[in-house]
Amino acid sequence: MDTPALVSSVLIANRGEIACRIIRTCRRLGIRSIAVYSDADARARHVRLADEAWHIGGSRPADSYLRIEAVLDAARRSGAAAIHPGYGFLSENAEFAEAVEAAGIVFIGPRAASMRKLGSKAGAKELMAEHGVPVVPGYTGADQDPALLRREAGRIGYPLMIKAAHGGGGKGMRVVREDAEFEAALASCQREAANAFGRDRVLLERYIEQPRHIEFQIFGDQHGGLLHLNERECSAQRRYQKVLEETPSLALDAALRERMGAAAVAAGRAVDYINAGTVEFILGADGQFYFMEINTRLQVEHPVTECVTGQDLVEWQLRVASGQPLPLSQEEIRPSGHALELRLYAEDADRGFMPGSGTLHRLELPAAEDGVRIDAGVDEGDAVTVFYDPMIAKLIVHAADRPAALAAMQRALAACHVVGTASNIGFLERLIDHPAVREARIDTGYLDRHLDEFLTRPEQPPIAVLAAAAALRLDQERDLAAAQAAGGPDPNSPWALADGWRIGQAGSQPMSLSWRQERYELAISGHAEAFDFSHAGARHVVRPTARTAQTLSFELDGRMHRLPARIGGDDLIIHFEGRRYVIGTPAPFGFEAAAVGAQDSLRAPMPGRIVQVLVELGAEVEAEQPLLVMEAMKMELTLRAPLAGTVAQLEARNGEIVEADALLVKLEARS
C-alpha cells in the first residue's frame, strides 16, 4: 500500500515558543505554516516566522486563542489542511477536536473520543483501574457537595490532594494536611479550576509523600501501532509547575522502566490512543508507581526525548495525522546520552516568583551548538505581555552522561542575560548546582519545602566580584579610549590612555558600581593592566592576567581567580562560588531619587483581576494576613498586609480589572 502524503499546510492554533517550534519542523518538511494571533501578538515571533498569519481577536485568551470559531474561520480562509493545537489553550478540548474534524480539517492529535475519556481525571482513573494500571486511592465521584467531599477526605485520610478534574499544568491543585484546612483549600481550588478550565469539579486522592514525577512519552498511529519513547523525570517542581526535566531518570532501573513503559502503553490502549501523548506517574519511595493522568498533547518538555532518541516528535505527529504508520517500532527506540531542560521565565524569584512583563531590551541566549538547543518564543526587542504565560525560552542540553549534561547546562545558563523584565536565571543556576539535583534525589515537594536553600543571597557582593567588575569596566574603558584615539590625529598619544594619570601623583579615578539597588563607590588607582582599590577600609591589589569573551583571570591580593565574567550591555555579569552577580554601572556621582513607597499601602504588583476580597473596611488585620486574591498571568496571587493595623481604605472589588501599582488597600498602622 502506498504511504499517504504529508498534509500540505498546517494552521497552528497557538502562540509563543511551541508555535515557533512547530513552524521549524513544517519548514523543514516543506509544509506551509499558518499562524494565528491576537491583538497583543500582532508583532510576535511566531507571526514573523510563519508563511502567513491571521488575526483572531483580542489580547485575552478568551477573546482569541480560546475562540474555536475564530480559529476555524482562519483555517477555512487560509485553506489549511490541518490544525496543530500545540499545548495549552484548546489542545485538550474535545469539542475543538470534533469541530476541526467536522470542518473537514485534519486534527493533529488524538481522537475526540479518546480525549473525552481522559478529559476528566476522575473518569480516567476509573478507566485505568479497569485496565490494570495502578492508581492512587481517592474519590472521583460526580457528587461535589462540599460536605460529602469533606467526609470522603476523612475516609481517604490526610494528607490528601484536591485536584481539578478537568485541566492540568499545576492549576487547581492543593495539598491539605488536616481537616481544618479543607474548606478553604477546596474553595480556592474550585475557583482556580473554574477560571482556568471553565469547570470547578474536583477529585480527591491520597497524597504520596516525597514522590517522584515520572512520565512516559507514548505515540499511537491509525493502524493499531502504539509504543513509548521511554521516560522523562520532572520531579523538580514548584507549586506543581515543572522547573527541570530530564531523561533518563536515575530513579529507574531497567526492570522498573520496563514495567512502567508497559503500563504506559496499556493506558494508551485503554483509550485507543492516536498521536502524541504523555502518561504521567507518581513514583513512591518504595518503588511503587501510580497512574496520575494522560496529557493528550505534546508536552512542554518533549525536546529532551527528542535529544536522546534523535527523533523529531512534531514530525511524528504530522506523519501520524497524515495516515502514515509510526516511523519506528518499539525495538528500534534506542536512547543515547542524557538530556536536561530548564524553563527560562520572566519572573522574579526574589519576590515570590512574581511574573514579569515588559520589553526585552536585551536578550542573550547561548549559541545553539555543541549539544545546546534553544526553543524560544521571543527575540530581543519583543514584549512579554501580561496576557500569557511569561516563558521566554527553554534551554535544552544533551551530553554523553548526566554530569556532562549538568556542566553543559551551567555553561548555557552563564551565557544568558535578560534586560527589560525580571528573569529566573539566577534561581535556575542555584537549582542546577544544588546537591539534591546533583545527586538526583529531588522529589516533587522538595523545592516548596526548601525554597530558602535556592533563594538565600549574600548581603554584599564578595570582594572578588567587585574586583572582577572593576577589571571588566577598566578593560571596557581602555578599549573605548583606544578606539577613540584610533580615529584621532595621534593614535599613539599617551594622553589617550584612560588610566587617570596625573603629574606628580598616582593615577586615581572614581568608579561607580551597583548591585541590588545598592551603590558602591570605588577609588581606582592604576589602569586596566594593574590597579588597586579600597573597600570597607581595606585596600586590594588586582592584576588581571587574561580575558576571553566569557571568562576573566586575575590575581587578587596574591590569590589567582578564574571566573565566568562578561559584559552584557550596561551590566557586568560575574559568577562566583556558584552564584550570579549582575553588577550595574551607573554614572559616578549620579543622583538617584530615594525609593518612595508607602509601607501602609497595598498596591497591585502587576495588571490583573481581583478574584476575592478577604477583608472589609474597618477590619483589624495582622501583618502578613491575606487581604486579597488576584489573578494575573494565569496565576493566583495572594496579597498580604504589609503591617498590622486597620483597613482605612478599600479600593478593590471582586471581579475588577486593575492596573499595575493601583492602590488596593490602605492601612492605618496599629499604635
TrEMBL record:
Start and end residues of each Lipoyl-binding domain: 593-668
Gene3D superfamilies for the chain: 2.40.50.100, 3.30.700.40, 3.40.50.20, ATP-grasp fold, A domain (3.30.1490.20), ATP-grasp fold, B domain (3.30.470.20)
Keywords: ATP-binding, Biotin, Ligase, Nucleotide-binding
Domain ATP-grasp: 125-322
Biotin carboxylation domain location: 6-452
SUPFAM superfamilies: Glutathione synthetase ATP-binding domain-like, PreATP-grasp domain, Rudiment single hybrid motif, Single hybrid motif
One Pfam family per UniProt: Biotin_lipoyl
ATP-binding keyword on record: yes
Cofactor(s) the record lists: biotin
SMART domains to which the protein is assigned, alphabetical: Biotin_carb_C, GARS_A
InterPro entries noted in UniProt: ATP-grasp, ATP_grasp_subdomain_1, BC-like_N, Biotin_carboxylase_complex, Biotin_carboxylation_dom, Biotin_COase_C, Biotin_lipoyl, CPAse_ATP-bd
Listed name of the protein: ATP-grasp domain-containing protein
